[in-house]
Amino acid sequence: MNKIEHIGIAVKNLEEANKTYKAILGVASYKTEKVESEGVDTSFFKVGDSKIELLAATNPESPIAKFLEKRGEGVHHLAFNVEDIQSEIERLKGEGFVLLNDFPKPGADNKLVAFMHPKSANGVLVEICQEKVAE
């Protein structure tokens, strides 16, 4: 793991949350993106080397909608950048962690992603991500 890539925050209303975080951080969102496979709209903010990803559900069956229903708005996940996501998946499984993905899948912000079950990481949903390589 190289660094914290971003912190994901689940929100009910992306437009309102964008206004809030623009005021908090003093910068506008640099990118919004829909991730159809996850049923989520995302918005990214960058301050220095740190990134915040806001996540809003696009349908009531999405993981974010279920999270919001159960826990309300707030920190959803902590993402770490890795050089070789498949090797990192195998390493973490070898350490005994439960991963929600055996193989990386496309995520937002030009990333391949995989998630570790929160029960494996003291209640924190951990995401590992790797920049997609241009083909």
Main beta sheet, described? 8 strands, mixed
What is the CATH homologous superfamily assignment? 2,3-Dihydroxybiphenyl 1,2-Dioxygenase, domain 1
Query: What coarse outline follows from CA principal-axis ratios?
Result: globular
| Uncertain regions spanning at least 5 consecutive residues | none
Main sheet: strand order: 2-3-4-1-5-8-7-6
Q: How do the SSEs run, as a string of H and E?
A: EHEEEHEHEEE
- Count of folded domains: 1
Mean pLDDT over the residues: 95
Protein name: Methylmalonyl-CoA epimerase
EC number: 5.1.99.1
Domain VOC: 3-131
InterPro entries: Glyas_Bleomycin-R_OHBP_Dase (IPR029068), MeMalonyl-CoA_epimerase (IPR017515), MMCE/EMCE_epimerase (IPR051785), VOC_core (IPR037523)
Write the layout of secondary structure elements.
Elements: E1 3-10, H1 14-25, E2 31-35, E3 40-47, E4 50-57, H2 63-71, E5 74-81, H3 85-94, E6 105-107, E7 111-116, E8 126-131
Parallel strand pairs: 1-4, 5-8
Antiparallel strand pairs: 1-5, 2-3, 3-4, 6-7, 7-8
